[in-house]
Specification:
7 helices, about 120 residues, mainly alpha
């Protein structure tokens, strides 16, 4: 049986710490920090921990339609998504994830780009 990244790095507790580190960096970011003003951060961190866990083999699952609906009104650009991904990679690295495993985790997040980033009119 293959071990998932979620299992390899200690499960929910570790992922929660990674997500907290990510949001500390995101809140300081001039590029994406504004998205988190007036947000219930403990609730967001809990939700994001479950989301990230689901992406790397954890027990939670998220419906793409729901993810898209939650992000649609935010008008997140590709550049902002790139900043988020870079900061998330930095947070994973800060918690000891190997470069190869970071690439795998970021690829899973990249797979959600099309439902998180705003679509422009055709």
């Amino acid at each position: 049986m293959t071990q998932t990244l979620y299992e390899k790095y200690g499960g929910f507790k570790t992922i929660s710490r990674v997500v907290m580190t990510f949001y500390e960096m995101a809140l300081d970011s001039d590029d994406i920090g504004h998205y988190f003003e007036d947000i219930d951060m403990p609730r967001l961190i809990d939700h994001q921990t479950k989301f990230v866990s689901s992406l790397i083999g954890g027990p939670a699952s998220f419906n793409d339609d729901r993810i898209e609906a939650v992000h649609r009104h935010l008008n997140i650009s590709h550049d902002e998504f790139d900043v988020m991904a870079e900061l998330f990679g930095d947070a994973l690295s800060a918690h000891g994830m190997s470069d190869g495993d970071i690439k795998t985790a970021l690829a899973a997040i990249e797979g959600k780009r099309s439902i998180i980033v705003v679509r422009t009119a055709a």
